[in-house]
Amino acid sequence: xxxxxxxxxxxxxxxxxxxxxxxxxxxxxxxxxxxxxxxxxxxxxxxxxxxxxxxxxxxxxxxxxxxxxxxxxxxxxxxxxxxxxxxxxxxxxxxxxxxxxxxxxxxxxxxxxxxxxxxxxxxxxxxxxxxxxxxxxxxxxxxxxxxxxxxxxxxxxxxxxxxxxxxxxxxxxxxxxxxxxxxxxxxxxxxxxxxxxxxxxxxxxxxxxxxxxxxxxxxxxxxxxxxxxxxxxxxxxxxxxxxxxxxxxxxxxxxxxxxxxxxxxxxxxxxxxxxxxxxxxxxxxxxxxxxxxxxxxxxxxxxxxxxx
Length: 308
Fold this sequence. Notes:
Blueprint: E1 12-16, E2 20-27, E3 30-36, H1 41-62, H2 70-75, E4 82-83, H3 86-101, H4 132-138, E5 148-150, E6 153-155, H5 168-180, E7 188-192, E8 195-199, E9 207-213, E10 216-226, E11 230-236, E12 241-244, E13 247-250, E14 253-254, E15 259-260, E16 267-272, H6 275-287, H7 292-298, E17 302-306
Helix pairs in contact: 1-5, 5-6, 6-7
């Protein structure tokens, strides 16, 4: 089903403490906001509209839930290679590099595993955990190396799919920020469901960012400050997991086995130069399981890890 086109009327502008305005909207199945260091409601709305339009554009192009998205068309199958536009080719090449650098742990073809894994959180019953045979049956459809990728031409083998869920929202945050700052030299922060990027800091002081506590959702375990431009992203299983035989199984799957990664923190928050970089590093760390913190430390990354 194709979702109706988003409009400016779906933006909500709020006054916030410290002389800030927040422009709120929904995109990518999460609440989004653009914070602007201005007392002008009209300027804030204009900046928010630019950011929202870019977010909705990316969602329309790359959501697997949009029947007319580029991703859906690619996943529908083609006997011949398809020439990708520059933006899509760049995203695919980025995913290829992540796959190579992670030893196959990061794989945008692993979305087919959602056919048997259903994560909604809250300790779901054991009947939501697939048997090993159903998982193994999907593994032949997983593996970036199986794609016929000769930039900018791509052909997916029959039955394989692409899923940009691991990088799409973070990419949208960065693009939305780029769109927003074209209209102002004031400090701006773009926040999509806790993944964010900012340009500068308000005159009143650094941005205050709360990081959710895994054991007590909707409460902050710590508050981080962002005084300079950059990105921040969190990855984890605090809201998406199943309980099986007394064991917590998170939604981060190892594409090489088809099963949840074990021994990783419940959440990892990473600070980097962009939201995409931060989100990628957070996910790569979790895919390392028990080696998550060693991975982060070896890369000299600013991070905050929490356990359930």
